Predict the structure of ER lumen protein-retaining receptor.
Amino acid sequence: MNIFRLAGDVSHLVSIVILLMKIWRSKSCAGISGKSQVLFALVFTTRYLDLFTSLISIYNTVMKVVFLALAYATVYLIYMRFRSTFDSESDSFRVEFLLVPVAGLSFLENYAFAPLEILWTFSIYLESVAILPQLFMITKTGEAESITTHYLFFLGLYRALYLANWVWRYHTEGFFDQIAVVSGVVQTIFYCDFFYLYVTRVLRGSGKMSLPMPI
C-alpha cells in the first residue's frame, strides 16, 4: 500500500464521519441528499461481497466493515431517526437515470462475466455518479452549509488521491485498472467546479456556499 492509497482511505473515512457528526449534532439532515447516501450504501454492498469469500488483509477487511456500517448508519439517520428534517422535495434527482445505464454498462464492460465481478464493476461505475443527487440538490436549493461542503471536499479529495494512487501503481508495479481509472476520472471531473467554489467561498469564511444565480 502506498501513501496515496492510505491518504485516500483516510480522506474517505473523514468525509463520512463529518457527515454523520453533522447530522447527529444538529439533529437534522437538512441539505443532505438521502438518495446519494442510499447509492453509496449500494456501492459498498455490491463491492464488498467478497468479505464472505476472501481475505486480502486485516486492514482491507476492517475498512470494508467500517464503510458498510457507516453508510447504513447514515441512511438510517436520514430516513428513520431524523426523517422529519429530511427535505424530500429538494432531493428529487431521478436515480433510475443512473441505475439503469450503470447496470447495463456493468454487464457489457467488465473483466469477467461472473456474478461477483459484475457486481464489483457495477459498484465502480455507480460510485462515479452517486454524488450527482447531492450536487443536484445543492444546485436546486442554491446553497450548502459549510459542514456539508467539507464533507464533499474530503469525498472529492479521496477520489483525487486515488487517481494519484493509480498513477503511482502504474509506474511502480505496471498495474493499470482501466475500469477503476476511467470511472475515477469521471467522478473527479464532477467535483472540479465544486472544488473551485469551495476554495474561493467556503475557505474564505462564508458560513454557507451560495451558488451563482443563472443569467
